[in-house]
Amino acid sequence: MSASKTPILLIEDDENDIFFLERALEKSGISFSLHTAVTGQEALDYLGGVGKFSDRSQHPLPSFIFLDLKLPQLTGFDMLAWIRARDAIKDLPVVVLTSSGEDRDRQKARELGVKGYFVKPPTPEMMLEALQLCK
């Protein structure tokens, strides 16, 4: 990653979790610009550059994604499958940040090619580890 701000897309519907992730990122010292999508459809629109997300100078493709598994409209697993099916973004690093510590969820996420799997709440150490995993 360059010295400029790393564009990160957070796909998360809980505003408290968004707040905690942003705080953890700030405390980690990572230089970032955080973009959020609160539903699966909004994430699809963001990644596809559709509608209000069509201006890539304002809504750049992320360097990596933090993804919650429990989302309205589409699940995190649906999002992962959609990302992996698109040539332009199929190699985009995705890190799951979820409340689920279940082994079956971890396994399914691994099968869908996630770089990391972390259970909430996020910590600065998690953010640094995620950044290392996504390089």
Keywords, separated by commas or semicolons:
single chain, 135 residues, alpha/beta, 5 strands
Distance between the termini: 7 Å
Largest sheet: 5 strands, parallel
Strand content: 15-25%
Spans of at least 5 consecutive residues with low confidence: none
Secondary-structure element order, as H and E?
EHEHEHEHEH
Describe the structure.
The chain has 135 residues and is α/β, with parallel strands linked by helices. The protein has helices spanning 15-28, 40-48, 76-84, 103-111, 124-134, and strands at 6-11, 32-37, 64-67, 94-98, 116-119. A 5-stranded parallel beta sheet has the order 2-1-3-4-5, sandwiched between helices. Helix 1 (15-28) crosses helix 5 (124-134). The longest helix is centred in the first third of the chain and has 14 residues, at 15-28. It is globular, with a radius of gyration of 14 Å. It starts with 5 loop residues before the first strand and ends with a helix. The model has no long low-confidence stretch (mean pLDDT 92).
